[in-house]
Amino acid sequence: MSSLQEIIHENVREGELHEKLDRRWVRCFACGHCCKIPDGQPGVCKVRYNQGGTLYVPWGYVGCIQCDPIEKKPFFHAYPGALAYSFGMLGCDLHCAYCQNWVTSQALRDPAAVAGPTRVSPAELILDALQQGGRVIVSTYNEPLITSEWAVALFKEARAAGLVTGFVSNGNGTPQVLEYLRPWVDLYKVDLKSFDDRHYRQLGGRLQPIRDSIQRLHEMGFWLEIVTLVIPGFNDSDDELTQLAEFLASVSPDIPWHVTAFHKDYKMMDPENTRPETLIRAAEIGKKAGLRYIYAGNLPGMVGDWENTRCPNCQKLLIERYGYLITGYQLTPRGCCPACGACIPGRWDPTFRQQITAHPFVPHRRSRSDLPVLNR
Amino acid sequence: MLSRTSHEPFAPFERGETPNERTVAVAYIIAEPCIGTKDTACVDVCPVDCIHPAKGRTYDDGRPTFDETPQLYIDPTECIDCGACVPVCPVTAIFPLEDLPEKWRAYTEINASYVVGGKFQPDRFQIRRN
To answer: The complex's ipTM?
Structure first.
């Protein structure tokens, strides 16, 4: 029986995002930690490691696969209704106590988090994505930055097959990794968890690299949306939400901001679940800060108009949603308001293509039967 | 149910704690084996530069420098609990708080007596040395 650690260390290749230092140390650029890693040690993420002065990175497997509506990512201004074929890898550069994907993200830190990888080639995975009706392929569930080389290999294949590509990330990036990703990643969601550096340090990171990456992602032309999980007593003060929203508005008032509800998970079981009133308060703070597209998520039917997209110019209702379900779509083929002609920033199809699913599902066995499961 | 092990990062919020206040010094602690060793591999790997004093570095707040302190200290406020320092220490001096041997319990305060949030603590450090 191989340990998960051994399996991870057998499915690697030399990474690109690093520089060699003296004494056979390397410096990794995959995430904002920029770990200096001595020979024989892993980085903070535990999946990128130095052996003999060479940085090895994950390659050739996925930790989990699921078909999600793109609204679940959440992207609201990119191909509404599209099926987002979503894969997760293992590991994370942070260790949030409330992680909702801890089974994959903390697999190498916490023995209780068990996720078995499935070996797969880019061609096999993309074929499965197409067979499921995927329009978009997304690296999500764990932190995609730490497996950027493998994601790019998959996304090159995906592009050739006509798929759109995306990252769902904590945004703890570096200039080097964003330059590396820019040719191959279309959509980028950052989970901005707080606007207080002390809070970020509790989660295992720092605010500054994330602020810098958000600014850079917007300037580089990724389609960027931001989500903030609002946690009572952690990041829901008027002051912190105001600072966060004003920062986003200063980058661009056109960046969609999703405020979503916390539910008790992993090791954070004390704060109460977020109430709809709290999300509505956060949304109103965002509006006051000047943001034009604010969405209160994951409490379907409980947050009034905050699930919908309205024209910021004439207030016409453009996209109606109930949870992940699109219930109305009025945008013109060019993504503009049919009433006043104002164009809505985003990535729009000429017509609404209907939804394959408004619920997540695990791909049917038939299409995965040829993917061997690694022995554990 | 989850079991807590040495591999596990610190849960930021302990039961009964107000999430907004970091009421206990949750971080890694450098204990007695560092005294007389001061290897500094930990300083090199720390991704947030929270281990002080760094060799050859001068600080402008009057704090004792590398040659003047008996050991290295982790700033409990700046530490992100990543654990990168633990495996590189040649004398096994660094522990997550929960695994700190009882006999070295005082080192929690000793670490916090040097710098907190990047600020030198002259009064606390003086008391500690006397």
So the answer is: 0.87
